[in-house]
Amino acid sequence: MSNHVDMKVVLLGKEFCGKTSLVERFINHRFSGENRYQNTIGAAYMAKKMDGSLVGPGGRPHQIMMGVWDTAGSERYQAMSKMYYRGARAAVVCYDVTDEDSWERLRFWIDELRKFEEDCKIYICATKVDLVAGEVARKRRRKVDYHNTTDLADEIGAVVFETSSKTGDGVDELFQRIVDDYIDDPLNSYTEFESGRGGDSRKKLHDAGDGGGGGACC
């Protein structure tokens, strides 16, 4: 029997910056960005069971049921999105490397998150890096310098990942890091991961409502 705990992760970022495609690649191992774009309404929820790289008592892996809330990025849904921050232990704040405005909005989402969950660990995720692969494409299409992002991450104590939902590059590594950091964080009581106590040993996700449906936003 593996150790089991539920963990809530929230995705934030400007509309069409690639949040839904990121979740789709992570959960279902597929890319549906070729489909017609559809803006997420409110939030969409998906979950995936994961094993941590660290092991628990008796050499058993820590098993995490990661619940991922993909929130809407458009301004008209921002007030609604706040309800989904509650209880989040990690936040993936996304921006599109070909859209400078999406990077400028990172500060807004980070500040909003800190108002509600100041201890939530932040992961800055650059999306669509496949669009800037190669020297020519990098010069023509990349609008956000990687070092600007790492400077921001150093300032706020965040971690940076560059990903492509189309190719899968960096996606699994991002979510595996989130799981391992959660297990390794001393703020999370080790007793949360002890097995043998049935449902009492599980840390429950905070209920943030049913959420809404979402489409594939590349």
Short précis:
It is built from seven helices and six strands.
Topology record:
Elements: E1 3-13, H1 19-28, E2 43-55, E3 61-71, H2 78-81, E4 90-96, H3 100-104, H4 106-116, E5 121-127, H5 135-141, H6 146-156, E6 159-162, H7 171-184
What does this structure look like?
It is a single chain. The chain has helices spanning 19-28, 78-81, 100-104, 106-116, 135-141, 146-156, 171-184; strands at 3-13, 43-55, 61-71, 90-96, 121-127, 159-162. The longest helix has 14 residues, at 171-184. A hairpin with a 5-residue loop joins strand 2 (43-55) and strand 3. It has one domain (3-197): P-loop containing nucleotide triphosphate hydrolases (Rossmann fold). The protein is of the alpha/beta class and 218 residues long. The model is unreliable at 190-218 (pLDDT under 50).
- The CATH architecture category equals 3-Layer(aba) Sandwich
Helix fraction, binned, reads 25-40%
Domain count: the total is 1
The helix-and-strand class reads alpha/beta
Beta strand %: 15-25%
- Under CATH, the topology can be stated as Rossmann fold
- The DSSP helix count reads 7
CATH superfamily: P-loop containing nucleotide triphosphate hydrolases
- Approximate shape: globular
Largest sheet, strands/sense/barrel:
6 strands, mixed
In angstroms, what separates the terminal alpha carbons?
Answer: 38 Å
- Report the strand count: 6
Task: Report the radius of gyration as a whole number of Å.
Answer: 17 Å
Estimate the mean pLDDT confidence: 79
CATH class call: Alpha Beta
Are there runs of 5+ residues with pLDDT below 50, and where?
A: 190-218
Output the strand order for the largest sheet: 2-3-1-4-5-6
Q: Give me the strand/helix succession.
A: EHEEHEHHEHHEH
